[in-house]
Design goal:
Pyridoxal phosphate homeostasis protein; PyrdxlP_homeostasis; 9-stranded parallel sheet; about 230 residues; alpha/beta; about 45% helix; Ala_racemase_N; PLP-binding_barrel
Length: about 230
C-alpha cells in the first residue's frame, strides 16, 4: 500500500467516526473541524493530506514547524495551528508561520504574542488553553483565572479570541473534562462573542468530545499512524 493509500484509508475511517459521532449528538458534520496534527511527520505527508482535502494542520515545535511551513508555502489555503506549549521568547518566530495559536495559557504569553503580531502588522487568532484539573505543569490556565486571561487577550487589540481548548487529564474521564470545557466556553461567549470555538478530543476520545460540543478535533495517530519521523 502506498503512503497516499494508507493516509486515504485512515482519513476515511476518521471521517466516518466524526460523522457517526455528530449524528449521535444530533449535530451537523460541518460543525466539527478536523485538525490534522502533523508534528514529527514529513512535509510530504502534509502534501498528501492536502491532496486528500484537508486544509488545517497543527504543529507543536516552532523550529520544526517554521521549516515545514516554508517548504509548503505553495499549498494554497492551508492553515497552520500551534498546539504545543509555547515560550514567550518564541512568540515572534511563531507569528511568522502560525495562523492560530491554540495554547495561550498566561497573560505574559498573550502579551508577547500581541507584541509580535503588532510588529508584523497582523491580527492573530488564538485559543485559550484551559487546565481542567488545575495542574499547570502540563500547560493550561486554571479555570478560576480564565476570565482574567480572556480579558488580557481581548484588550490587546492584536489577538482575536476564538475560543478555548483542553487536553483531557489522565486522572479524569474525558467526558468530564469536555463537559467542563464546554461550560468554560459558554461563559466566555457572554463577554467575548468571538470565542465560539471548542477544541477538544483527539484520536482516542473524539466521540466524547463531539458529544460535548467540540468544534475541533485534533487528530494525529489515527490519521498518520504511530510511526514518527526521526528528528535531528
Amino acid at each position: 500500500m502506498s503512503r497516499r493509500d494508507e493516509l486515504a484509508a485512515n482519513l476515511a475511517e476518521v471521517e466516518e467516526r466524526i460523522a457517526k459521532a455528530c449524528e449521535a449528538a444530533g449535530r451537523d458534520r460541518s460543525e466539527v473541524m478536523l485538525l490534522a496534527v502533523t508534528k514529527t511527520w514529513p512535509a510530504s505527508d502534509v502534501e498528501l493530506l492536502y491532496e486528500l482535502g484537508l486544509r488545517n494542520f497543527a504543529e507543536n515545535r516552532d523550529q520544526e514547524a517554521s521549516a515545514k511551513v516554508r517548504q509548503l508555502r505553495h499549498l494554497e489555503g492551508a492553515r497552520w495551528h500551534m498546539v504545543g506549549r509555547l515560550q514567550r521568547n518564541k512568540a515572534k518566530s511563531v507569528v511568522e508561520w502560525a495562523d492560530q495559536v491554540d495554547s495561550v495559557d498566561s497573560v505574559r504569553l498573550a502579551e508577547a504574542l500581541a507584541r509580535a503580531a503588532h510588529a508584523k502588522g497582523t491580527k492573530l487568532d488564538v485559543l485559550l488553553q484551559v487546565s481542567i484539573d488545575g495542574d499547570t505543569s502540563r500547560g493550561g490556565c486554571p479555570i478560576p483565572d480564565v476570565g482574567e486571561l480572556a480579558g488580557a487577550i481581548t484588550r490587546s487589540g492584536d489577538l482575536i479570541l476564538r475560543g478555548a481548548m483542553t487536553v483531557a487529564p489522565l486522572t479524569m474521564k474525558p467526558s468530564q473534562a469536555f463537559e467542563a470545557l464546554a461550560s468554560v466556553v459558554s461563559g466566555l461567549r457572554d463577554d467575548h462573542p468571538t470565542a465560539t470555538g471548542v477544541s477538544a478530543g483527539m484520536s482516542g476520545d473524539l466521540e466524547d468530545a463531539i458529544s460535548h460540543g467540540s468544534t475541533c478535533v485534533r487528530v494525529g495517530t489515527a490519521l498518520l499512524g504511530s510511526r514518527r519521523l526521526t528528528l535531528p
